[in-house]
Amino acid sequence: MDSRASEPRRPILCLVTDRTACHGSLPEAVEAAVAAGVDWVQVRERAVEGAALLEHVEALAAAARRGAAARGGRVRVLVNRRLDVALAAGVAVDGIHLGGDALPPDRARTLLGAGAWIGVSTHAPEEAARAAAAGASYVQLAAIFTPRSKPATRPALGPGVLGEAARAGLPVLAQGGVDRENAAACLAAGSLGIAVTGAILMDPDPGAAARALRKALDGHAA
Fold it and tell me: Which of 221, 222, 214 is closest to 73 using CA atoms?
């Protein structure tokens, strides 16, 4: 079945991991965040290679599954950029998140299978349209606000572009500087959810931070 055919009913809360942003154990933070309401975990790690990267992905995937089991729900785990690692991880992960300069989503799906979730990073609404035409499952549009977890590399887009990107027909996640104060504005503008790093991992209590974001998203949806 095409991975775009089934969407969650509540707004998506996606955690994009970064070991350097986390105060303590990253697996523990991931588990706590998923238990508190994170729906997707995107494993991003560019400083590790080879077998160590695969072990890192598998450890975070296992932590995410434990967190989902604790709340009696499910979680989707995606590998950032590394198609080889996603393939090696097999059923431990659900798909891949591609950079804008990576191979096309349709080619990634050929390798990972029709049911794989294929995300694409975008920085303009027209890029979302191209990702949709190429068979992506969803896009992340960044940076909506000034990022918290890394230096800004481009001007913030503002939430107004989210609706335009959503007209491509794919779920759009707002990324970059999103927090509990502006998450609802992203949904109101047209995103199906948010993707965050610092708003959860830079908090001393990742579980509490994820719970606050979950409340903000669900409060707007209600």
Answer: 214
CA within 13 Å, CB half, 95: 26
- For residue 124, give the DSSP letter: S
Token pair belonging to 120: 């694409």
Contact predicate 88/49, CB 8 Å: no
The residue with tokens 């729906």 is: 39
Out of 3.40.50.450, 3.40.50.300, 3.20.20.70, 3.40.190.10, which CATH number does the structure's domain 12-221 have? 3.20.20.70
Bridge partner list, 119: 97, 138
Q: What is the mean pLDDT of the chain?
A: 93
Residue pLDDT, tens place only, 99-131: 977 889 999 999 999 999 999 999 999 999 999
**Residue 184, φ and ψ in degrees, nearest 5:** -65, -35
CA distance 208 to 222: 21
What token pair was written down for 5?
């055919």
